[in-house]
Amino acid sequence: MGANASSQLEKEINSDNFANEHYYGLVNFGNTCYCNSVIQALYFCQPFREKVLQYKQQLKKSGNPKENLLTCLADLFHNIATQKRRVGTIAPKRFITKLKKENELFDNYMQQDAHEFLNYLLNTISETLIDEKKERPPAVKNGTLRKSHPPPTSVQETRERTRSDSQPGCSRVSESTWVQDIFQGTLTNETRCLNCESVSSKDEDFLDLSVDVEQNASITHCLRVFSNTETLCADQKYYCETCCSHQEAQKRMRIKKLPRMLALHLKRFKYVDQLSRNTKLSYRVLFPLELRLFNVSDDAVNGDRLYDLCAVVVHCGATPNRGHYITVVKSHNFWLLFDDDIVDKIDVSAIEDFFGLSEGGIQKNSDSAYILFYQARDGPTIDTARVTPNHMSI
Amino acid sequence: MTASTGAQPATTAYGNKRRVSFVIRETEEKRPRSFINCLQWDPSTSRLFTAGADTIIRTWRTPREMSSSSTTPEAQYLVSMEHHTDWVNDMVLCCGGKYLLSASNDTTVKVWNATKNFCMSTLRTHTDYVSSLAYAREQERAASAGFDNAIFLWDVGTLTRLTSTNNTVTTSSLSGNKNSIYALAMNPSGTVIVSGSTEKILRVWDPRTCQKLLKLRGHTDNIRSIAVSSDGKQCVSGSSDGTFRLWDLGMQRTIWTSNLHHEGVWAMQVDAGWNHVYSGGRDKRVYRTAINNHSNWQLLLTEEAPVKQLLLIEPEQPRHLWVATWTSTVRRWPIPQGSSLTISDVDSNYDLRFEDPKPLIPKEDMVVSGAPSLRQHIVLNDKRHVVTRDSIGNIALWDILAAKKLNEWADRPMEEVVKENSRKVFVPSWFSVDVKSGMLQITLDESDVFSAWVSAKDAGINDSDNKVNYGGMLLRALFERWPECASAPDDPSMIGNPNVPPHTPLIICEAATGRPLFRLLVRDACCEAESQLLSEILPNWVLDVVQAGQLPKFTKMPFFLLPHSSLQQKQPKKDRLSATEMLQVRKVMEHVYEKVLHGGTEFTSIETPPTLSRSTNIESCLELYCNEQKLDPEMDLRTVKHFIWKQGGDLILHYKYLK
């Protein structure tokens, strides 16, 4: 059946101008759709794919025999990109085996969280690259190995600085790899004391943004809520260094450096006290094909960046523990749906089906967007999407 | 609603967890220790009242005759009124200067006799910082508002009749506020009351009926100061958004908005004739603007720090303006009279962004000089000494146990003093420090007050190995004069009680909210009323030490003792030993010598360390290691754990004997 579907797609893409692109479904090894869906999304994040394939070329040259999660991913991407046929199915067996070996969290047949996996994968790749950079000359001094930085999480590192007296020597520069180059942005956390009205700000790097979802809202609205002003008062007062005492303060989080690839995680899985378990919020959350951020700080350098939607990881089902993950990607002006080993071309209007449900969003079965990947239009890889007309009205 | 007042709080209304704090300071603090939040003027006696972050209300006399010397004359200090335990935010002088009301971050409003200078009663109806007061002179009514969103109306006459037995008062409250209130004002006839809050809206009530009248929208940030015209038809408001506005309450709209200030407008005064508004704020400037034409304005003066409060003297024909800023010094500026009032139209064409107009008043004519306030503190390793830095860079060294300052330097780096007075010793924390009042305040809490056991030798008491407890010693010293304080027990941990200065203020407060329950001076614990209250209010953890003379047990810590790898001994069974955390390494060495090398009997506790029968020097017989580092026999186990072991899990020590 899969073969039939593939041949159908093959005919379609041959009649259209799909350049030399490959569309391969990934075999499910028992609840590994969380992994397949994220890999497909990342494969169609052009800057990321390019770097992984470059890494593969480098591996060939250096002949590094040591297998890790990145080498397995590079092999998988290379495998897809060098297939003779344009469409088909591939079993990402080595990658899955390696993943389960490296992290016991994923070493079972349970349903996993795609966002957690994305986080783990990006951080692992980044650590691998940092370690490799260190192993290469300049040789290790005195034979002692420096301990690597703690693994970056989604909010990666905190640099604290007060506007009045910044200490440049104190800010530690995090080691940067192409993972950071592609996905990393910076949030600035501004706190203003309501008594002395002085502002202190603290920067945090992120690889993806997790936003709360609301019924019948747009992603722009969710981002605005993310940056809403919060007042620290009553027994939550803020210790102001200028006042030397606890005062009321207003705090807000805004984006200071916009990433090249913006990964937005919609917090659809939430612990509900009444049900005393995790539940899914199937709220209808609109996301546009073109996105501009409004919650940027005044000193942001690239605050007016325009983003194009390039991939969506969709969760299907009613609860976090049961369900399925699929991916919608854009490639050469066309939209495709990857459901494990099945690949289909879809119409752009079908994307609306993944907004969620407009009524009774809790505990309902839905196919709703879970992670959105937006690529900055000014990025060095110029996508042909530049001329895509925007069909959807949001 | 009814509110309970008086010096005596209703004990049942408060939680059981309590803290004890004390302030280390001079006997008499004549000069403000930190910035001034509020000013009042009594024209009948020419007295100025100041109060602010240092919790103390002070009165000053301003001499009428000016000395001809070149230095600015100083206001003469008269007296202090002390009872608040946190910042004083606002004051109003009532009944022609007889009584004073004050509002504080300690969540109370206090009623003072302003002629005899004592606290008459304390109103505890607010549950958060009380930020502002309003006063209707003709009605002798007052109102208080705070961060608990509440506004209470008070009849001044009733407040001044309160006594310790007749301590309930009826108040009405104004409802509707959803946010913390930062500003409050009433007209003299008490027909209109206006509040400003972080809601960015001015809310207006009729205080006679407690009816909501209206809301005024327009400001885009917190509202910090308000003044209402005597007819109650207009008001002015200053905001953190950098503007101040004139409002028409009848038409419910802004008449004009002034953008003179670069930053938040924190203080406003209007003369009695409602002719000019005086505004000051974060940009350090004070402007005078004509009410009837806001383009008619003048820059009166520029202060050295953000302006917190303004006070017009003789508001009918303003002659002087007192200005309080973000320093502890308050200055009086003479307002030019006569013709200079009208030259302002020419100045109004200045564009403030490009040109700084010259201030109209070049120099102050009187000053209330403040003292420097503590800004920074570092607790030293011995958990007994604290190093502080004040607002003019002085560095001081304090002994917490004796509640006094040991030394002070004018020009030394703080780090240097810290380094010079630090020792490589680990003592657990047993108190917390804050400097919100500009003075050093030490707080003792049940959770850790007894955690600091040290040897009498380390504490500098005598040369014995007896252990003393810092928290216990200090508590006994603080309540030494209380008749119920047990006479010094034989317990060696109680020896060498330090002396605490008798003027030291003691504060007992609720642990959860920090709200004060009782404030007294150390020397007053012997007075009958104070003594009685102490026995009602002091928490059990204080009573156990002070009244019953008991202390909790030593804190024990487990550790392992193994032969050093160089001894190439077969690893024996790992015995888990346990000892008090202040046990000296020397005692462990003696234990190794006696029991492991010569006795060989198994036991797992060295509660009573064996004494070495011979007067041998133990260091010549064996060495003790932790993490391959040789240990100093004088070190104690917790210091080893903190500085050398530096990890979780039980401490492992290795012994090596020398041949």
UniProtKB/TrEMBL annotation, chain A:
Keywords: Hydrolase, Protease, Thiol protease, Ubl conjugation pathway. Residues 24-377 form the USP domain. Belongs to the peptidase C19 family. The keyword Hydrolase applies. It catalyses: Thiol-dependent hydrolysis of ester, thioester, amide, peptide and isopeptide bonds formed by the C-terminal Gly of ubiquitin (a 76-residue protein attached to proteins as an intracellular targeting signal). GO terms for biological process: protein deubiquitination; proteolysis; regulation of macromolecule metabolic process. It is an enzyme of class 3 (hydrolase). Residues 135-172 are annotated as: Disordered. GO terms for cellular component: cytosol; nucleus. Its EC number is 3.4.19.12. InterPro entries: Papain-like_cys_pep_sf, Peptidase_C19, Peptidase_C19_UCH, USP, USP_CS. GO terms for molecular function: cysteine-type deubiquitinase activity. The keyword Protease applies. SUPFAM superfamilies: Cysteine proteinases. Pfam families: UCH. The lineage of its organism: Eukaryota, Metazoa, Ecdysozoa, Nematoda, Chromadorea. Signal peptide: none annotated. This is Ubiquitin carboxyl-terminal hydrolase.
Automatic annotation (TrEMBL), chain B:
InterPro entries: WD40/YVTN_repeat-like_dom_sf (IPR015943), WD40_PAC1 (IPR020472), WD40_repeat_CS (IPR019775), WD40_repeat_dom_sf (IPR036322), WD40_rpt (IPR001680), WDR48 (IPR051246), WDR48/Bun107 (IPR021772). GO terms for molecular function: ubiquitin binding. WD repeats lie at residues 36-60, 81-122, 123-164, 174-215, 216-257. GO terms for biological process: double-strand break repair via homologous recombination. Gene3D superfamilies: YVTN repeat-like/Quinoprotein amine dehydrogenase. Transmembrane segments: none annotated. Keywords: Repeat, WD repeat. It comes from the Eukaryota. PANTHER family: WD REPEAT-CONTAINING PROTEIN 48. Belongs to the WD repeat WDR48 family. This is WD repeat-containing protein 48 homolog.
